[in-house]
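User: C-alpha cells in, sequence out, please.
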C-alpha cells in the first residue's frame, strides 16, 4: 500500500460511501423520470427497484469470477456504471421524445427500455460490494463479520446521503438530466482515484493506462453531455411539442408547456408534465359536455376542483344566475398563466377577470376537508385521469364523501373519469366509488380530435339519477344537444364492467 493500512482502509470505506450514494441517486433518477414521463409512480418504482435488486443478486454471483483481479474489475465496473447511470435519464427522455412510445411489456405497463437500463445498472451495482470486500481484506485481514459490518455501515450511510441529496439538492438545483450526469462524473472520478491511487501496484502498466483512458473518456462524455443538456432538452421538447412552443416553465408542481395559438398557426395546446391536457381543436367538446349538464338546476354557487386553465370556468360563466365560482387548483402558476398568457387567456375568455371568480391555491382533497364556504349547487371535478397515481386519492370514496358534504340538497357533481374505451375498468370503478359514497351517477362519453375521448359522470346525492340534459345558457355557447347526450350515455353504458369494488385511500383500485 502507498499509505498506512488504517488510512487506506478509511479511503476504501469512503469510496464505498460515495458509490452507495451514487447508486441510490441512479435508482431515484430512474423512478422519477419514468413516473414523470409514464405516470403511475407506484408501478414505475416497483419495476425499477425489483429489477435492480434482482440484478444486484446476479451481479454478486458474477463477482466471484472477478475476485482475482478485483482492482482492475472494480475500476472497469465503476467506469461502466458511471456511464450507464449518468446517461440513463437522458437516454430515457430521448426514447420518449423521439419515438413517442415506450414499448410497454404489457398494456399501461413498464417500458422495455426502463427494464433494460434497470437490469444493467443493477448488475453493475451488485458487482461492487464483493469486489470492495476483496479490496478491503487485501489492505488488512480481519474477521469476515467485522469487515462486512464496516462495509455495509459505509454503504447504508452513503445511501442515506444519496437519497436525501437527490430531492433536496440535485433535482431542484441541476434538474434530472444534469443531476444524473454530475452523479456519474463523481462516481467515475472516485472509482478511478481509489483503484489507481491505492491499488495501482496490483495492475500492470497496460491495465493502468487502459483504465485511465477509459475514465477520461467517460468523464469527457459526461461533461460534454452536461454542456449540451440544455440544447438536448430543447431539441427533445421540439420533438414532443412541435416547433411552436410559446411557454415552457417548471412551476414547482408540474411542467407547463403552451404551444401554438399564433396567427395562421396550429390551434393552441396545453401540456402538463408532457401530456396533452388541452387541445384547441376539441377542448370545447369536453368542457361543454363536462359543465353544461351539471348546470341544469340551481347554480348560484359553483365549486371547480382543478381546472386551473380556466376553461371549465368559462363554461360555468356562460350560464345566467351564477353568483360565485370558487376555483381550487394546486398550481397557482398555472392559474397565473391562464390569467396573463394572451393565448390561454383568450381561449378561456378571460374568465379570471370576472369578479365572481375567486381562486384558492390548494390540493383539492385537502381543501374539501376544511371547506366551510358551502353549500355549493354545482361541483365540477376537472381533474387528471384516475390512472395517475398522484390523482388516485381524488377518485376515492373518501374524496366523493367530502364533495357530497359541501353540496347543497339536490346539487350536482360533474366528474371527469378518464377514457372509456381505453380503460373501461378504471372508468366504471369511478361509478362504483361514487355509488359507495352515496351518490347516484349517470355515465356518458364525448369524443374529440383523432382518437381522444373522455368519460364523464353526472352525479347527485338525491335518491334518483340526475337528468342528463343541458342547461339553458347565455349567448355564444355552443353546447351539446340533449339528443347527443343521450347517445353519449348509451355509448358509455355499452362498455359497462359490472361488479367492480369501490376505490378507497387504503385500497386504490385504479
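Assistant: Sequence out:
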Amino acid at each position: 500500500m502507498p499509505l498506512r493500512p488504517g488510512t487506506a482502509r478509511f479511503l476504501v470505506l469512503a469510496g464505498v460511501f460515495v458509490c452507495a450514494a451514487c447508486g441510490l441517486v441512479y435508482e431515484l433518477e430512474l423512478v422519477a423520470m419514468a413516473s414523470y414521463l409514464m405516470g403511475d409512480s407506484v408501478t414505475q418504482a416497483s419495476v425499477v427497484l425489483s429489477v435492480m435488486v434482482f440484478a444486484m443478486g446476479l451481479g454478486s454471483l458474477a463477482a466471484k469470477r472477478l475476485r482475482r483481479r478485483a482492482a482492475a474489475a472494480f475500476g472497469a465496473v465503476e467506469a461502466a456504471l458511471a456511464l450507464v447511470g449518468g446517461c440513463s435519464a437522458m437516454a430515457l427522455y430521448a426514447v420518449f421524445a423521439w419515438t413517442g412510445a415506450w414499448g410497454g411489456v404489457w398494456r399501461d405497463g413498464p417500458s422495455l427500455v426502463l427494464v433494460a437500463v434497470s437490469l444493467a445498472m443493477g448488475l453493475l451495482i451488485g458487482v461492487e460490494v464483493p469486489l470492495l470486500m476483496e479490496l478491503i481484506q487485501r489492505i488488512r485481514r480481519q474477521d469476515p463479520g467485522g469487515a462486512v459490518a464496516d462495509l455495509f455501515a459505509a454503504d447504508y450511510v452513503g445511501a442515506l446521503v444519496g437519497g436525501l441529496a437527490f430531492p433536496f439538492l440535485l433535482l431542484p438545483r441541476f434538474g434530472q438530466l444534469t443531476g444524473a450526469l454530475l452523479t456519474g462524473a463523481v462516481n467515475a472520478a472516485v472509482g478511478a482515484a481509489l483503484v489507481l491511487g491505492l491499488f495501482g501496484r496490483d495492475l500492470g502498466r497496460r491495465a493502468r493506462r487502459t483504465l485511465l483512458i477509459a475514465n477520461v473518456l467517460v468523464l469527457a462524455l459526461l461533461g460534454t453531455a452536461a454542456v449540451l443538456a440544455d440544447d438536448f432538452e430543447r431539441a427533445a421538447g421540439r420533438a414532443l411539442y412541435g416547433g411552436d412552443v410559446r411557454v415552457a416553465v417548471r412551476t414547482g408542481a408540474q411542467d407547463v408547456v403552451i404551444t401554438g395559438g399564433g396567427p395562421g398557426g396550429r390551434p393552441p395546446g396545453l401540456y402538463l408534465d408532457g401530456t396533452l391536457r388541452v387541445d384547441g381543436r376539441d377542448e370545447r367538446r369536453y368542457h361543454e359536455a363536462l359543465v353544461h349538464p351539471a348546470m341544469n338546476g340551481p347554480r348560484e354557487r359553483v365549486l371547480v376542483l382543478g381546472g386551473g386553465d380556466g376553461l371549465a370556468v368559462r363554461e360555468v360563466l356562460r350560464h345566467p344566475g351564477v353568483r360565485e365560482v370558487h376555483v381550487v387548483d394546486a398550481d397557482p402558476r398555472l392559474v397565473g398563466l391562464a390569467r396573463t398568457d394572451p393565448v390561454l387567456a383568450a381561449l378561456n375568455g378571460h374568465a379570471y377577470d370576472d369578479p365572481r371568480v375567486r381562486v384558492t391555491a390548494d390540493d383539492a382533497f385537502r381543501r374539501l376537508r376544511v371547506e366551510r364556504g358551502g353549500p355549493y349547487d354545482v361541483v365540477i371535478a376537472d381533474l387528471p385521469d384516475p390512472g395517475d397515481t398522484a390523482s388516485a386519492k381524488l377518485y376515492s370514496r373518501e374524496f366523493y364523501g367530502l364533495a357530497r358534504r359541501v353540496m347543497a340538497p339536490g346539487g350536482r357533481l360533474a366528474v371527469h373519469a378518464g377514457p372509456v374505451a381505453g380503460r373501461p375498468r378504471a372508468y366504471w370503478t369511478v361509478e362504483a366509488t361514487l355509488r359507495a359514497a352515496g351518490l347516484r351517477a349517470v355515465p356518458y362519453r364525448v369524443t374529440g380530435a383523432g382518437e381522444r375521448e373522455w368519460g364523464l359522470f353526472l352525479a347527485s346525492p338525491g335518491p334518483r339519477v340526475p337528468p342528463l340534459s343541458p342547461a339553458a345558457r347565455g349567448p355564444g355557447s355552443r353546447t351539446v344537444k340533449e339528443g347527443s347526450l343521450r347517445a353519449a350515455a348509451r355509448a358509455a353504458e355499452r362498455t359497462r364492467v359490472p361488479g367492480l369494488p369501490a376505490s378507497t385511500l387504503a385500497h386504490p383500485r385504479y
